[in-house]
Amino acid sequence: MTIIYAILIFCMLIFVHELGHFMVAKACGVKVNEFAIGMGPAIFKKQKGETLYALRVFPIGGYCAMEGEDEDSEDPRAFNRKPAWQRALVLAAGSFMNLLTCVVLLIIIAFFMGQATTVIDQVEKGSPAETAGIMAGDRITAIDGNNIKEWDDITGTIGDNKGEAITITVDRDGKEMTFKTKPEYDKEQKRSLIGITPALKRNVGTAFIDGIKNTGSMTVMMYDVLRQLFTGEASVKDLSGPVGIVYAVNETAKSGVMYVVYLAALLSLNLAIINMLPLPALDGGRLLFLLIRKITGKRVSDQMEGRIHFIGIMLLMLLMVYVTFNDVIRFILPIF
User: Fold this and answer.
1) Catalytic entry in 18, 67, 69, 305
2) How far is CA 3 from the centre of its chain?
3) What CATH number does residue 181 fall under?
4) pLDDT of 63-79, one tens digit each?
5) Of these four, 33, 37, 191, 204, which has the most CB atoms within 10 Å of its CB?
6) Catalytic-residue membership of 18
7) Same domain for 176 and 217?
8) Which phi and psi (to 5°) does residue 297 adopt?
9) Which domain holds residue 296?
10) For the stretch 116-135, what's the b/e string if a residue is b when 16 or more beta carbons lie within 10 angstroms of its beta carbon?
11) pLDDT digits (tens, 9 = 90+) for 306-328
């Protein structure tokens, strides 16, 4: 199942990324020579019109090969013959599709996981809440006189408690009731608890908002990691390649399918952000060259840009080899 999950994730993320380039290229009238998922020898290929569609044996990459992408071409529909704004749209479309995929996956997760309400679903036996008389079905309306609007208000107020007694007001079948209890500190969770869990509700609108918010939070986290890499706070040794991703899939699969979906969302956003970095061979690097050539004119030729991107690809492959080697040391060798 780990291998199946990993292959599905790799193929899905590559497919949506290249599909973004492909759809916008077609919409802009760019000639696409080949649309391929995977690398290496083709296990399936079909020529349809001007484009060869191929499925290749190794699910570790893919490409949308456009006429005039890395070389001069006299074809009027070549990528290098299109206006700068159209080329920019084509280049940015892949990362946009990965960003959109992340949002959609997080919306799905938010919907199926449900949103916590202020209604109590379960009360642990022997917990401070049970001792105080709080019951399942009670809706918490206030704590120490402060109005409660959402579950985070409850966890925040109780979690920060320093062992002092609190007053909890609940609505029980339309009647207001007040209970006093003293939260207990949980060393594992590192916060105070009273032993209650919330009832969940599923709402498409709320899930949509949560999906967008969670994407934003995840983006901030990833940019912080990149900042740490560039400032030296984090090491390249901490990066993971395909081997590390398969290991992560294996670990998350133990917790359930939703955790695998979350990992897929994380990887999709990671792919979107990394591809937009202004580095040779990446979409962000191509956008940077597009801007430079717009400013300087023909001083940077298609051949020169193509060579620089080729060097960038070689450097990325060396980085991949290094990262994979570290992954093997970290995740594979300890097994033996």
Assistant:
1) 18
2) 20
3) 2.30.42.10
4) 899 998 877 788 999 99
5) 37
6) yes
7) no
8) 80, -130
9) 2-112+209-335
10) bebbbeebeeebbbbebebe
11) 788 888 888 888 888 888 887 78
Domain count across the chain: 2
User: Based on the domain organization, do 194 and 223 belong to the same domain?
Assistant: no
Quickly tell me which residue has 């959109």 as its tokens.
Answer: 100
Q: What is the pTM of this model?
A: 0.80
Q: Which amino acid is at 180?
A: K
- The answer to whether residue 6 scores a pLDDT higher than 90 is no
User: Which DSSP state fits 163?
Assistant: S
* Residues 69 and 214 reside in one and the same domain: yes
- 159 lies in the same domain as 272: no
Same structural domain for residues 99 and 216? yes
Distance, in Å, from the CA atom of 18 to the CA atom of 39, rounded to the nearest integer, reads: 13
Q: Give the C-alpha separation, 85 to 91, whole Å.
A: 10
Token pair for residue 84?
């700068």
Integer CA distances (angstroms), 191 to 131, 171, 292, in order:
19, 25, 53
Residue type, 324: T
Phi, psi of 11 (to 5 degrees): -65, -40
CA dihedral 23→24→29→34, nearest 10 degrees, is: -50
Q: 14 and 85, same structural domain?
A: yes
276: its two tokens? 């937009």
Angle at 107 between CA 106 and CA 110, to 5 degrees: 85
- Model confidence pLDDT, tens digit, residues 118-174: 999 999 999 999 999 999 999 999 998 889 999 989 998 898 888 789 999 999 999
